[in-house]
Inverse folding.
């Protein structure tokens, strides 16, 4: 009986190299850093949300913005979980991508949002809405 790890789709032997494991660990550390950064910004996000709602901003729009700001740790955690599962069960390269890309996407969107409000809204959290 053959007990070699075999990829279910192609029937080829699946190899997990030391470099793949090292890459997954580095991507996991980066995702954990994003999660910690996202969790550290929760207090500031809540205060900005409360201040914007007090100044008359649209409550529903501000709730969406707040949920986006608070989503960082959850996005990173989901990416870590899915990435590790994909790494060990399917394809190591895809697992690394699943660990790294969701966190990178959230940070990119957050950076774009912060750039937009600082450029077009003079730093005002709600852009006058």
């Amino acid at each position: 009986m053959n007990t070699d790890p075999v990829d279910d789709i192609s029937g080829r032997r699946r190899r997990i190299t030391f470099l793949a494991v090292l890459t997954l660990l580095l991507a996991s550390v980066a995702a954990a850093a994003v999660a910690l950064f996202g969790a550290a910004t929760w207090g500031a996000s809540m205060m900005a949300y409360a201040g914007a709602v007090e100044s008359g901003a649209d409550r529903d729009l501000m709730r969406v913005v707040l949920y986006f700001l608070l989503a960082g740790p959850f996005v990173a955690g989901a990416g870590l979980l899915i990435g590790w599962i994909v790494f060990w069960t399917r394809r190591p390269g895809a697992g690394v991508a699943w660990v790294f890309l969701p966190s990178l996407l959230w940070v990119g969107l957050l950076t774009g949002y912060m750039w937009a409000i600082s450029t077009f809204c003079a730093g005002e959290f709600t852009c006058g809405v």
Helices lie at 18-40, 42-54, 59-70, 72-89, 92-120. The longest helix spans residues 92-120. The two ends are 67 Å apart (CA to CA). The chain has a mean pLDDT of 83.
